[in-house]
């Protein structure tokens, strides 16, 4: 199963053109893991200090070690997860494909992923539901995250100039490539003429400096490092092309699991929502926790651009724009049924 199935055009491009070899990098971060996975969410007794026994249930979350996990990591560190009644394990994975496979075998209960990847998984027959937002894109006037970067002396001036050029993305046919395609398309260019190559995010700035690529879709903290150390500049902010903040990262689960225990998953969703709200209101603490979670320098964590946490919930409206682009640009074969994908706990 490959949930990040590239659109057919991208598959042919990757197959027939020179590709920079690489695989997605997953650092061995020191995650806050309290327990191992099990086939079903387990319950255990715990004292609330007043003599009453409170139910504490195991929760294993499949995560990709990126800054979007910061709010949940912070909630685990400051005790909010435990107060909500969960014994949380953050289980790192290389991709959403790996997370979903672990989910199907009962090893994890929820997973993190980009919205486009979830759309693609569902299109490939995996019956997932979105239970909560992980992150939202910054506003159209907030550059930094996923800007398209080139060298300071590059002749490229806008997204349309990427036609015929080599652009690095971490996963062909995934969310970052979609962002670049949106920028190119909205600038009047043809995304089909862009040569996308796969390259691990940490290797992209050096590849740009060496001339192996013409541009890359920046991921943090490497976008900030490329600006500061190499003087790279942005020729496009995809979110300016989108024109509004939208939900980009989501927390998802198997529909069968949610329907089997909706109270458990609703409590999980509410806990994640509270973690996101807290992150929105406590930026300094969030950045400290992101530094601890990802292992980056705390001073760098203070400077990197972050997604928006806690501002947008996972609703049909907030996912619609990315769903529309995913279909229009060929990332999914049919329009996304968001009414079915976004789980409504109140209606079920």
Write the CATH architecture name of the largest domain. Answer: 3-Layer(aba) Sandwich
Count of DSSP E strands?
11
Beta content: 15-25%
Assign a percent range to the helix content: 25-40%
| CATH homologous group name of the largest domain | Periplasmic binding protein-like II
Order of helices and strands: HEEHHEHEHEEEHEHEHEHEHHHHHH
Q: Which CATH class of the largest domain applies here?
A: Alpha Beta
List the SSEs and their pairings.
Layout: H1 8-16, E1 43-47, E2 53-63, H2 70-77, H3 80-83, E3 86-92, H4 96-104, E4 110-114, H5 115-123, E5 128-136, E6 148-150, E7 166-169, H6 175-186, E8 195-198, H7 204-210, E9 215-217, H8 222-230, E10 233-236, H9 238-242, E11 247-254, H10 255-260, H11 262-281, H12 283-294, H13 298-303, H14 316-328, H15 338-341
Parallel strand pairs: 2-3, 2-4, 7-8, 7-9
Antiparallel strand pairs: 1-2, 4-11, 5-11, 6-9, 6-10
Helix pairs in contact: 2-11, 2-12
Describe the structure.
- With 348 residues, this protein is of the alpha/beta class.
- The chain has two domains: 43-137 and 245-341, D-Maltodextrin-Binding Protein, domain 2 (3-Layer(aba) Sandwich); 140-242, Periplasmic binding protein-like II (D-Maltodextrin-Binding Protein, domain 2).
- 38% of the residues lie in helices and 18% in strands.
- Strands 1, 2, 3, 4, 5 and 11 form a six-stranded mixed sheet that branches. Strands 8-7-9-6-10 form a five-stranded mixed sheet, sandwiched between helices.
- The model is unreliable at 1-40 and 44-53 (pLDDT under 50).
């Amino acid at each position: 199963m490959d949930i990040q199935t590239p659109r057919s055009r991208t598959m042919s491009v990757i197959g027939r053109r020179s590709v920079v070899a690489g695989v997605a990098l997953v650092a061995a971060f020191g995650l806050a893991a309290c327990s191992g996975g099990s086939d079903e969410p387990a319950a255990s007794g715990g004292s609330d200090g007043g003599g009453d026994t409170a139910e504490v249930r195991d929760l294993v979350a499949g995560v990709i070690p990126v800054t979007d996990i910061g709010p949940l990591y912070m909630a685990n560190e400051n005790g909010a997860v435990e107060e909500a009644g969960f014994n949380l394990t953050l289980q790192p994975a290389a991709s959403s494909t790996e997370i979903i496979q672990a989910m199907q075998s009962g090893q994890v209960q929820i997973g993190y992923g980009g919205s486009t990847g979830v759309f693609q998984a569902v299109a490939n027959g995996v019956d997932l539901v979105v239970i909560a937002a992980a992150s939202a894109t910054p506003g159209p006037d907030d550059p930094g995250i996923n800007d398209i970067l080139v060298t300071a002396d590059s002749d490229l001036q806008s997204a349309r100039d990427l036609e015929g050029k080599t652009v690095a993305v971490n996963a062909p046919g995934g969310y970052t490539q979609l962002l670049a395609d949106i920028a190119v398309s909205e600038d009047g260019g043809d995304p089909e003429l862009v040569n996308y190559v796969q390259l691990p995010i940490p290797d992209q700035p050096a590849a740009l400096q060496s001339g192996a690529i013409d541009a890359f879709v920046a991921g943090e903290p490497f976008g900030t490092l490329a600006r500061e150390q190499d003087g790279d500049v942005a020729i496009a902010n995809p979110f300016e092309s989108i024109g509004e903040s939208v939900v980009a990262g989501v927390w998802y689960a198997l529909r069968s699991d949610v329907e089997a225990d909706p109270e458990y998953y609703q409590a999980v969703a509410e806990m994640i929502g509270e973690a996101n709200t807290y992150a929105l209101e406590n930026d300094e603490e969030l950045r400290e926790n992101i530094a601890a979670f990802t292992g980056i320098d705390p001073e760098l964590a203070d400077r990197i651009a972050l997604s928006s946490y806690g501002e947008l919930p996972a609703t049909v409206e907030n996912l619609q724009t990315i769903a529309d682009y995913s279909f229009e640009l060929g990332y999914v074969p049919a329009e996304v049924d968001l009414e079915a994908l976004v789980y409504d706990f109140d209606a079920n």
